[in-house]
Write a structure and sequence with these properties.
By secondary structure, the protein is an alpha/beta fold. About 40% of the residues lie in helices and about 15% in strands. The chain has helices at about 20-35, 75-90, 100-110, 125-130, 140-155, 165-170, 215-225, 245-255, 270-275, 290, 300-305, 315-320, 335-350, 350-370, 370-390; strands at about 10-15, 40-45, 55, 60-65, 95-100, 115-120, 155-160, 180, 205-210, 230-235, 260-265, 280-285, 310-315, 330. Strands 3-4-2-1-5-6-7-8 form an 8-stranded mixed sheet, with helices on both faces. Helix 2 packs parallel to helix 3 (about 100-110) and helix 3 crosses helix 5 (about 140-155). It is globular and about 65 Å long.
Length: about 400
Amino acid sequence: MIEKTQYQALYTAFDVFPSAKGAATHIYHFSKSILKAYPQGMLYVLGDDKLPVYDTWEENIHIWRFKSTENNFLEKTEAYSQQLMLWLKEQKKLKVCHFRDIWGGIPILLHPHKNYQSIFEVNALPSIELPYRYEISQTLLTKIRELEQFCLEKADLLIVPSEVIRQHLLVQRNISSEKIKLIQNGAELPKNQNRPLEAPQQYAIYFGALQEWQGVDTLFRAFRLLQDTDLHLVICSSHKYRFTKPYHKFAEKLGISEKIIWKYQLSKEELYAWVEHALFSFAPLKECSRNLEQGCSPLKILESMAVATPVIASDMPVTREIINNEYVGKLIRADRPAEWARAVRIWLSYPDNVKKIGKNAQEHIKKHFSWESKTSELLKEIHYLVYQAEKN
């Protein structure tokens, strides 16, 4: 039985895996690289109605999916943590425990006989992220922040995807710089895909999640100013249709519904086909704490550049870490629909230059943002951590 096996490596994530979300791409590359490096590896994630509780991934990786009918988010996280804690008590050979969130981190760090190295991959902080999804009292946020601080201080190594969140941990959380390692996200260089049959002649694309901080409303307002062009907007949502209903209503209110083509939870191959044949793509991130304090390393930007589709993105520190000059993309002030519309018009007027920017962007990804290089950086840090622990 999977739950009775003795493992040497564990990777946990409070996310459904696999899924259409960008987080699943990151989990795929990082967890696979870590867990394959040891004789037996366990991936502990969330499940849904379609995925089995237990699964096997390649030869030496097992997947264990936590399933719950609990709708309350925090109660679900508690149950997830408790199940992991019980499993950890039976594990005697673990060398590495890698977690993406505090829900996996708490049981890993509280283990009474902890004899493994712990790595906290700090992609998001719930105290910053959750208020965008739920109404949460200040008392509860304070408690969550305390749990975050516990994980940040007790983990042996912290991995962050951007300089923005590294600075947040240094300045706001008082974490030692020696403990924090910056490893940005990566992107695959997929094979060329055929143009989707239903694709309009001219279209730009937004793909990914549709949370408020993604800034899709700014994009819609910009398209209201582009009604005289032949440009369509394709939205490839990582959510199901029901989640996108408010955006459909907003598009109707703006009078741009006929300009928008909707796609939902596409496979990677289908998504890459739409992205590759777009004139350009958008990352209209909002100026908010989610993007300015916590930071990110937006996969939508990297994946678009990887297929030579140039990106128009919000100008902020996290995007400047990827698009560092106008030869590889275009940065526009966030939350300024008129400026976004103006940038689109300019790019539509100079298609040859836009194609050149796309090719430059692809080369930029090859040199600096391949998943192979990022997972190699990660393994180097982890192997050194384990070596030092065994040495001492």
